[in-house]
Amino acid sequence: SREAILHGAFDKFAESTKKKRGTAEVDEAFLEEIESWRDALARNLSLRNRRLSDRELNFAVQRIIDRIVFLRMCEGRGIEPFGQLQTLLNGPEVYPRLVEMFHRADERYNSGLFHFQPEPGREPPDELTTTLAVDDKVLKDILVRLYYPESPYEFAALPADILGQVYEQFLGKVIRLTAGHRAKVEEKPEVRKAGGVYYTPTYIVEYIVENTVGKLVEGKTPQEVGGLTAHWRPSKSRRPISVLDPACGSGSFLIVAYQYLLDWYLKQYTEADEPQKHARGANPRVYQYTNGDWRLTTSERKRILLSHIYGVDIDYQAVEVTKLSLLLKVLEGETEETLQRQRRLFHKDRALPDLAGNIKCGNSLIGSDFYNGRQMSLLDEDERLRINVFDWEGRDGFPDIMRAGGFDAVIGNPPYLFITEVPADMRSYYGERYTTVSYRFDLYGTFIEKGTRELLGDGGTFGFIIPHTLLSNDSFGKLRSLLAVETSLLKIIDFGPGVFKHAKNETMILLFQKLRPVANHSVEVTRAAPRQWPETVGRFRTRQSLWARPDGSPWMVRVNGEQRALLNRMDSCGTVLGHFCTANQGVRTGDNEKYLAPKPRGRRWRRAAGGRQIARYGTIPDELYVLYDPKLLDASRKPELFLTPAKILVQEIRNIALPRRIVATLDTEQVFGLQSTNVVNVKPETPFDVRYVLGILNSGAVNLYFRCRFPGNNHIPSNQLLQIPLPAPPDEKMHDRMVSLVQQMLDFNARLPHVKTAYDRAATQRQIDATDRQIDRLVYELYKLSEEEVGLVETVPEG
Q1: pTM, to two decimals
Q2: Alpha-carbon span 476 to 279, nearest angstrom
């Protein structure tokens, strides 16, 4: 009832269970729908068309689904006669009649989605899908789900960005032909390695577009942005502003960029000038709708799309989905009446553009030079398609834009994939071709270098959402140096975890302009929590010159002026952990079922500890063993690392839900640290006790230093530990006091689990807290911190 809705009864009903019919989110429900269509079509097409290859089968299934979705959405918007697809349910020969609809759509829309006849200047037509055999039942099962009561979707209200979210997940799988020419749908290898497909939230995309495309059009006229003369003809002296997503996926960034430009042009035409002036002439920009609102003409919407929006993706299916989403965006808000009216008034024929010249398929990172020194004749077609070279300057790329200096904006969410997961031939090419690639590099970094040095024109703007690892990981040192020296960094927005649904990785937005920074150029640094956006946790500006170091030092995005002075004070002690200790990541096992067990299974089994077994000053539990034999397992980790009288074990992988800090304890029982730990050993010549080092590592001052100096993800790399400033004790008395306090902490923490009563437990915990504070005060003395600096350490929240 109306009253129940107004009082929130339906909302409570929907929240009570996510499994009730009608309470699923649209993107998840529609994804499940089209995935079932894919399964059914793939099985039927492979059965009825035995000559289809894997690639042809994927192409055919994708195209049929895309065309059906497009026509149904046009029906919902009143652009196509409502129920025309539904009429196919009556009678046999469903697919031939459906193909007839596709041909009529070709005549009507002129898009690559429906392209069956050769035409000058266009890519080759589709001569495959119209000849296929498809059983009636399969198609009828799909078509009946497009209409009430079987369909829960209001296609008139389904926006292009929701469709993109659906297809982003849809494209994470591929159809494979197995023995007997049977079709099987499985996850793509690259998606499996990357841990899944994660759609970029709309608020992230909109922010990046506003701060890149928005920056480019600010203060400009439509003629300047569109590369036009005062008489609205193409200008020879300027070109349209060009926006590129080099890994466009399903087109989410390009859809938002296109919408931004549509809104901007309409505002310019209707607010800055008299709208009637733009509604006249041979090529009117706007027309007045029946309710009096001004709208962009379809021809102007097409011009804006073709002039400004460009994308590339290695996956041809993703390319087709991007085209589909953009075509639907062109028609958004239109009806059959408005289209017919525009045709009559403006003498325009087909409603949609062909996007083959704007959205292209290829590997953005690999050009034809990949084949230099290689025998192309030795590569079969599958290999060439896997590599999928793309020449940006060549005929099949964007030669005019590249000759003019490059794109004006590069935006997107590039693939996150360790370089070690890339095929060997590609990995070798990246290492030779890109100067910033190093061990444990991530593919997103290669996209940044490519975008900065080759794709982005001088003065252009760049906006990516990427992993947090750029800020501090050693693998990105060269890339940090490149960006700090060759670009003007505009904004760094540190989100931490939570941006991507079902993903734990920490992310950030990187925004810069391709201009060498002036001497006093400053970067706006923001810390934010995704769920609270656009509210921020903190914001400050810092001079970019502080980041422009040839050694690629980490960018301190969590450090304001006061905190930087504190870090400098701690650095002034002149010595670091690496002077006194070694630090190594623990044993890599790989096959945990084979190499790990809760009890020893023989003489070669050694007591072990991972990150979960380590707590601050905690006793390492006897609950894990590793089969250690250098001939079988990780020979690079020599037993001498572990078989020492006393060493420090540090969590290497920290639970991402917890504040990032150093968690360390003492081991005197020759425990073998695993990959999720760091093993710290005091060098033989070091004149002080290992417990002295442990106290400093676990202190509040060092944890603040580490979080600020090395902003990163949930890993605590050993090489970063070695860079922590570690003051030598000024005298034996202070050294012995630290050792005594640390031993008390170890004893108290060993006793705590065995305390029986709540009173005794609370008393022991108070002793632990008091001793912890004493250690912190002693560490302040060792670093010679002032009371103001001590106050800063104790007031900066963890995280």
Answers
A1: 0.82
A2: 52
